[in-house]
Description:
Elements: H1 2-21, E1 28-29, E2 51-56, H2 63-75, E3 79-87, E4 97-105
Antiparallel strand pairs: 1-2, 2-4, 3-4
Amino acid sequence: xxxxxxxxxxxxxxxxxxxxxxxxxxxxxxxxxxxxxxxxxxxxxxxxxxxxxxxxxxxxxxxxxxxxxxxxxxxxxxxxxxxxxxxxxxxxxxxxxxxxxxxxxxxx
Length: 108
């Protein structure tokens, strides 16, 4: 009899987590190695970038949000974001799609 209670309790808690607290994260710019304390760039802001990776989930994101994020990141260095490709290699499971952008210098 107690096993049945635990099973029912477990199912109820599972549904509560799924419907209450778990939502798809918003898109974000991936910072590779940002938690690697042994990296030379740890804790330092970059002075220039050549590319940007935006991680997103198709259920929560729009193409415009992804373009805006990449554009804002490249814009910090007076560059323009140009879409390169996308795949499922760089980002975690909650935001599985990796959109790669090349940051190109703007013409004066």
